[in-house]
Amino acid sequence: MDGELAEAGARLHKAVLISQAAGIFHMGIMTNSNLADVLMEQGQLHSAAKIYSRLYGRQPFRMTDFSIGCPVYAGLSRVSYEWNELERPQSMLASASRVSRRWGASNSRP
Q1: E-state strands within the chain
Q2: Domain carrying residue 32
Q3: Total structural domains in the chain?
Q4: Which residue in 3, 4, 71, 77 has its CB near the most CB atoms, within 10 A?
Q5: What CATH number corresponds to the domain at position 88?
Q6: pLDDT in tens, 13-28
Q7: Closest to 96 (Cα-Cα) out of 71, 79, 66, 78
Q8: Is 108's pLDDT higher than 70?
Q9: Is 108 inside any structural domain?
Q10: What is the Cα–Cα distance from 107 to 5, expressed in whole angstroms?
């Protein structure tokens, strides 16, 4: 939030490792998503896309099962938009909207 993206990325990477080691599933999704957001801000779209895609395809987890799926859908839509894949962003944002309404999330990022 204060523009220190390198520091934020390093701290989020540590948080990802801690959540994985502790087996805290939801925290892993959130920290990975936030790390991908930082990578997007740094212009590292391929790295961000890899994280979002891994989270999206995670089994047996389904993004529609949890409100934490909203940032993943939103992130995938942002990457697709940047790559001029204009059909996918609409689909991803529609999914984010459905999940957000289902779970009553008011803090999902577009």
Answers
A1: none
A2: 5-103
A3: 1
A4: 71
A5: 1.25.40.10
A6: 999 999 989 988 888 8
A7: 71
A8: no
A9: no
A10: 21
